[in-house]
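User: I'm writing a tutorial on reading structure tokens. Could you give me a worked example: one chain, its sequence, then its tokens, then a sentence or two explaining what the tokens reveal?
Assistant: Sure. Here is the example chain.
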Amino acid sequence: MRRQQETDRCLGYGPGATRGGRRGAALVEFVIVVPLLLLLILGIMEFGVIMHDYIMLAEGAREGARTAAIGRPVKEIQNRVIEASLPGVSPTMIQITELDPATGGWVAVSDKASGGQNNVPSDGIVRVTIHAYPHRMVTGNFFGWLPGYSNGFMNLNASLTMRRE
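And here are its predicted structure tokens:
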């Protein structure tokens, strides 16, 4: 029994224990847990902001495709995309294309000579793409290893396709 009490005292248990065996354990645990917790919190925050920006770009592309599908002119489509998406979207980031059934490729949409409509034929396929939107990373270089990251920015893209009415 005496031997058990001496062992307990050395390990920091029981009455009269010196806690010599547990000294610094809390600091070591803190040093291990805090970086992991920080990584988790910053990751959740950054992912949330990226998803917000992507959803806003997708909404802008959807509104632009809807506007193109009802036959509105190119300038009006671009303005609708800019209104419905993020403030940093510029007309140079917006690409409006139609599917060419003869070649199977995508060609740029233009306006009819009258200027009141785009030149996509009825039942044609129109696509609006927002490309290379520079999302500024909230955490700076912390997540610099993510694909698409460059100089504090991550380029985001969104696209939507609709049939012309």
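What the tokens reveal: The chain is about 40% helix and 20% strand. The chain has a mean pLDDT of 88.
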